[in-house]
Amino acid sequence: MHRSSEPIRPAEVLQEVASTFRPVLPSTIELVVNQPAPDIPPVIADRAQVVQALSNLVSNAADELHKRGGTITLAAYRAMPEDPRLTTRGLGDGSYVVLEVADTGGGIPEEIRSTLFEPFVTTKPDHPGLGLYTVLTIVKRHRGTIDVESNPAGTRVSLFFPIGQEHPVGQTAVLIASPSATVRNLVAATLEDAGYTVLEAASPAEALATFIGNASRVDIVLADDTDSIPFPLDKLRAMKELKPELGIILLCSLLERQSLAELEEKVVTAFLAKPFSDTMLLETLGRVRRGSLPATA
User: Fold this and answer.
1) φ and ψ at 42, to 5 degrees?
2) For residue 145, which of 198, 92, 200, 218 has the smallest C-alpha distance?
3) In terms of pTM, does the model score above 0.85?
4) The domain that contains 122 carries what CATH number?
5) Which of 47-51, 168-172, 234-238 is the least confident region?
6) What are phi and psi of 211, to 5 degrees?
7) Both 158 and 282 in a single domain?
8) Cβ-Cβ contacts under 8 Å for 276 (sequence gap 6 or more)
């Protein structure tokens, strides 16, 4: 979480952005603010960055409507847990406020939709193509996600920001213990992209030493139990004795020897069967952070 983070009321941010743009938009473009429900909760975020993200979206919409005219609509609402824009990303267990910018333009060209958030992607020769890339970066820094719907009738961009500060991902440190540099690198990239702090160890002995030196900040251990090098249970037990609230996720194949024994000894918190997707990994970490399982994934 950013040092400049503060509770932000969505209605105030929408009005701030609207007040900036209304005086400079041509009369052919109407900027509408749908007032959020009065009970919509605040989000903990860097206000300047949230304003920048929304401003970039409004600027893009205005560029699209410059010749044809039309309407830009700003909205904010609390996302429902069953919202498919969350569940398809493995985020259905979280609570989010959505900040949204919609326009009645001609939609995003099909040929750039797959690269929309990459830097320097633009349909305008005089634009650097960093607007949406910046938006995505801001949302990710706040542990959120982004969704885009576009068709010939217009485009809607939805920014999902998590509500409150309870168990913030950015303050959750994960120790990845695996003899495989590939596994460590791939898992670390996924976790860092999601906002986790990552420590690494190449062996069980190194993992225990790293944990002992960082026990106060490590919240979860990902232990890679390979066919050739099973992760020693005594090392995991030692970590758990030092920090009883520690979450331990064992990465293992379905055919490996580790099974219910570790769970019965209350050492391993959850299993994650290999191979696993980024979504499965993040979902399992989220359940362990919140203390809600099943124990296998």
Assistant:
1) -75, 165
2) 92
3) no
4) 3.30.565.10
5) 168-172
6) -65, -45
7) no
8) 251, 284, 297
